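Z., the sequence and structure:
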Amino acid sequence: MGPIAGIVLADYYIVQKTNLNVSDLYSRSPYGAYRYSRGFNVAAILALVVGVLPVVPGFLQKVGIATSVPNTFVVIYNNAWFVSFFSAGFLYLVLSNLRGKPGNSAARDPLLPTAK
């Protein structure tokens, strides 16, 4: 839950600056603000994976699958929510800034009424 919360909050409050385009949420246009890459936000998926990875060794040690894990990973696992929240959120911010912002598609989408 930590990396998901970090990504969602970083996207809404920092990347989107609390602006939510409701018509683009339901648009099937390939130019929509939330379309990303064929419907998948690659930056969010990558940030989620990177946010979870440091926690895995400590988890495997906790459930008994891994027997010898460095103490650093155990400490990371014990603070997993915070570590994954901040690492995923920060990486998402970096990747989102590298990607740039998609344009607004409200005027280009033939299924939506045009703004007057």
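Residues 2-99 form one domain. The chain has a mean pLDDT of 86.

Let me know what you think.
H.
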